Amino acid sequence: MNDDIQTILYSEQKIQAACQRLGQQLTQDYQGKKPLVICVLKGAVPFTADLIKQMDLYMDIDFIDVSSYHGGTQSSGDIQMVKDIDEDVSRRDVLLIDDIVDTGHTLAYLKELLKQRGAASVRVCMLMDKPEARQVKGMQADYVGFNVPNEFLVGYGLDYQGKYRNLPYVGILKPEIYQD
Ligand SMILES: O=P(O)(O)OC[C@H]1O[C@H](OP(=O)(O)OP(=O)(O)O)[C@H](O)[C@@H]1O
Ligand SMILES: Nc1nc2[nH]cnc2c(=O)[nH]1
After folding, report:
1. Closest to 16 (Cα-Cα) out of 159, 146, 173
2. Ligand 2 in contact with 69 (CB < 6 A)?
3. Of 46, 120, 142, 163, which has the most beta carbons under 10 Å away?
4. What angle do CA 22, 29, 58 make, to 5 degrees?
5. pTM of the model
6. Cα–Cα distance between 42 and 62 in angstroms, integer?
7. How many angstroms separate the Cα of 128 from the Cα of each of 24, 85, 86, 158?
8. Could you tell me the distance, in angstroms and rounded to a whole number, from the CA of residue 43 to the centre of ligand 1?
9. Which CATH architecture has domain 12-150?
């Protein structure tokens, strides 16, 4: 699997340092609150697991699965709910955790959903922000680990055709690996 990678952009060490920095900031910002942390499946699983260990807070954790990348490297822009959360978000301070904001369609859908359900506040923590790819204007995360180049990335949760999520780093695949 490692042989399929052309370039490592963010090493395991850099990612862990980002988790520590973001975790400290979130610990400060949510002091005295008990946020509802929502992990966006499946890509945000490694990031959420590492980040919450750096947050010295009481919290609830839930999971949501929405999908717009149907196997390839392009967002369809058509977001589908695959699995909803179990918790009631009304009057909760929600912290949404995802691995990447790219076109912004997924984030726009999730923010609107949580707002409609009456969350007291919604903040977003992303490991990566790909600003050059944005299609939904104004879609920004409140906490960002790395601003990334406009490339299709894999690893640390990010997949290509279901593979590479378990890499401990983020990188770019060799061109011959892509089938579309
Ligand atoms: O800003 P956008 O262009 O909407 O892209 C961002 C979304 O794409 C990926 O999820 P994906 O839909 O591929 O599902 P997955 O996490 O299960 O791989 C990623 O985890 C984000 O949720
Ligand atoms: N694997 C992967 N999924 C994404 N979803 C949105 N952007 C990306 C990306 O760069 N890589």
Report:
1. 146
2. yes
3. 46
4. 90
5. 0.96
6. 13
7. 17, 23, 26, 11
8. 7
9. 3-Layer(aba) Sandwich (3.40)
Q: What are the tens digits of pLDDT across the range 26-35?
A: 999 999 999 9
| Ligand 1 pocket member 98 (CB < 6 A) | yes
Q: From the CB of residue 177, how many other CB atoms can be counted at a distance below 10 Å?
A: 16
Residue with structure tokens 């973001």?
Answer: 22
| Residue 39 DSSP symbol | E
Q: Where are the alpha helices (DSSP H) in 53-148?
A: 105-116
Rounded distance between C-alpha atoms, residue 136 and residue 30, angstroms:
28
Residue 175 DSSP class: G
Residues β-bridged to residue 5 = 173
Six-digit token pair at 114?
């949580």
Q: What is the pLDDT of residues 101-152, one digit of tens each?
A: 999 999 999 999 999 999 999 999 999 999 999 999 999 999 999 999 999 9
Range list of H helices, the chain: 12-29, 45-52, 105-116
Please report, for the chain, the start and end positions of each structural domain, with discontinuous segments joined by +. 12-150
Distance, in Å, from the CA atom of 168 to the CA atom of 46, rounded to the nearest integer, reads 9
